[in-house]
Amino acid sequence: MPNARCRLTVFRDSPGYFKPENNKGAFTIEFSPVERDTYILNERGYTVDLYPEMRKPVNMLAVHKTLGSQLYVMAGLWSIAQHLDDCLIQNDRGNIIESSSANIFIVSNGVLYTPSLADGCLGGIMRMQVINLALENGIKVYESALNPQNLLVADELFFTNAAQGVQWVGAYRTKRYGHRMALRLQDLLVKKVLS
Q1: What is the pTM of this model?
Q2: Residues 46, 49, 50, 52, CA torsion sign
Q3: Once rounded to an integer, what is the mean pLDDT over residues 135-161?
Q4: Going by C-beta distance under 8 Å and a sequence separation of 6 or more, which residues neighbour residue 175?
C-alpha cells in the first residue's frame, strides 16, 4: 500500500488487573490504507459548537492519547446528533482545549494561538509540526488559554491532526471564519512532507 495510517498501541501485559504483578509491556501496530497521497485542505469549512455534556479533567494523563477515549467518542456522537462536523471540548476549568478528533488553533490579527499542554490538550504530533512550521516562517505562535469569547473575535479557527493535516472551521454558532492562514500552513506542510 503506497500510503497508510499507522497506529501504535502500547499496553501493560501483566496479570493483576488494577494492581499489576509486574510492569511488562507489549504493543500492537495497525496499518490502514489512505487514499490520498498528500494533505488536502477541506473545501467546505466545518461547522462546530461546544460539547456541553462533559469536560476533560486536567491531570498528568490528559496530554496522552489513551485507550480510555470515551469522552471523544461521546463528543463525536453528540456532533452527529447535532448535525455538526465536530465539536469543541473544554477542560474542567472551562477553557477550550481541542475538538473530538484534533488539536485546535485560532488566528487573530495574523497570530496563531493554541491551548497549552498545561490546559490538558493532547500533545498531538501535527500540533507540534504546525507550531514549528509557523515559527520557521515568521508566524507568531502563542500557547494560551482559550475561551468561547476568543472564538467570537478570532479571524480563523482550524484543527490539526496527523491523519488530515490542517482542516479549517467555517462556523461556530453564528460566527463565520475565513481560512487564509489554514491554507498557507497546509501548503507549507505539504511542501515539507514532499521534500
Answers
A1: 0.89
A2: negative
A3: 97
A4: 151, 152, 154
